[in-house]
From TrEMBL:
The lineage of its organism: Bacteria, Pseudomonadati, Pseudomonadota, Alphaproteobacteria, Hyphomicrobiales. It comes from the Bacteria. GO terms for biological process: cell wall organization. SUPFAM superfamilies: PapD-like (SSF49354). InterPro entries: Ig-like_fold, PapD-like_sf, Periplasmic_pilus_chap, Pili_assmbl_chaperone_N. Pfam families: PapD_N (PF00345). One of its GO terms (cellular component) is outer membrane-bounded periplasmic space. Residues 59-176 form the Pili assembly chaperone N-terminal domain. This is Molecular chaperone. It comes from Bradyrhizobium uaiense.
Length: 276
């Protein structure tokens, strides 16, 4: 792995073409004797000839979360282009909601990004404003995602270079003057061969969930991975499913829940009547 000046890592992908390999096999069938070491050298030379370079983009966005308390209605995102070339960037805002355990992102005119598109010079910074333009007061907490896309360069598909473009999704929350804390309950269901945890939030404020662990009455444990699992938004429910869980997990008795949240570690119990 090689790093270019002021840019992200440079990844090189070695590709041996099918044509080259077939040609070698055809020559073998004709009885052309090739020493084993010579074959390896030929394959390596072929791989170098077929080599492509993938450039990881170096577009950064700060901060990684926006939270505004009324009456504040505007915040700033700083875009940083660490590349040696110009970068085209598009920024837009989508309303973020959750229903029946699933997330959705929809276009909105209540919150806008200004400017929505910019061409950034090499090694430059640019400030994008995220502004709530709706005149209606915030009720509870409104949730949005600010989507920052690096657009493909014109003629970027030519040559042997592959551009790995980046999309960044920044959570943005606008909070009313009065807001209730998260009030979370948990449920568990098993269907179609998968186990699903359902988290419901009766409060106004979202809850960020990480390092979710379940433990049943027999002592069997189930992990939903290390690190961030996701958010459950205010007055919403979110579900997470897994196909890999211990046989008979939670078949009797209660299940304990442990998770790390942005409000601290949480502990809960899923009783048998809350499982389906």
């Amino acid at each position: 792995m090689k790093k270019g000046r002021g840019s992200g890592p440079l990844f090189r992908c070695i590709c041996v073409s099918t044509k080259c390999l077939l040609g070698a096999r055809f020559r073998n069938r004709l009885g052309i004797a090739m020493h084993h070491s010579s074959t390896l050298l030929a394959a390596f030379a072929t791989s170098l000839a077929c080599m492509e370079v993938a450039h990881a983009t170096a577009l950064r966005v700060e901060p990684v979360l926006l939270e505004l308390n009324a009456p504040a209605a505007a915040a700033s995102l700083t875009l940083r282009n660490d590349e040696d070339a110009h970068v085209e960037v598009q920024t837009r805002v989508l309303r973020w909601s959750q229903s029946d355990g699933k997330e959705s992102l929809e276009p909105t005119t209540d919150v806008v990004a200004s400017p929505p598109a910019v061409r950034m010079a090499p090694h430059s910074d640019y400030v994008v404003r995220v502004v709530r333009v709706s005149k209606q007061p915030v009720n509870g907490e409104e949730s949005y995602r600010v989507i920052v896309d690096q657009l493909p360069r014109a003629g970027g598909g030519q040559g042997r270079s592959v551009n790995l473009l980046v999309r960044q999704s920044i959570p943005a929350f606008f909070r009313g003057r009065e807001i209730s804390r998260p009030q979370v309950s948990w449920a568990l269901r098993t269907e179609a061969g998968q186990l699903t945890v359902v988290t419901s939030n009766a409060g106004d404020e979202r809850l960020r969930i990480a390092n979710l662990r379940l433990k049943d009455s027999s002592g069997a444990t189930l992990s939903f991975g290390n690190g961030l699992l996701g958010y459950v938004l205010g007055h919403s429910s979110m579900s997470w499913a897994t196909l890999k869980y211990p046989r008979g997990f939670g078949s009797g008795g209660s299940i304990s829940v442990t998770a790390d949240t942005d409000k601290g570690q949480t502990h809960a119990v899923i009783e048998s009547q809350t499982r389906r």
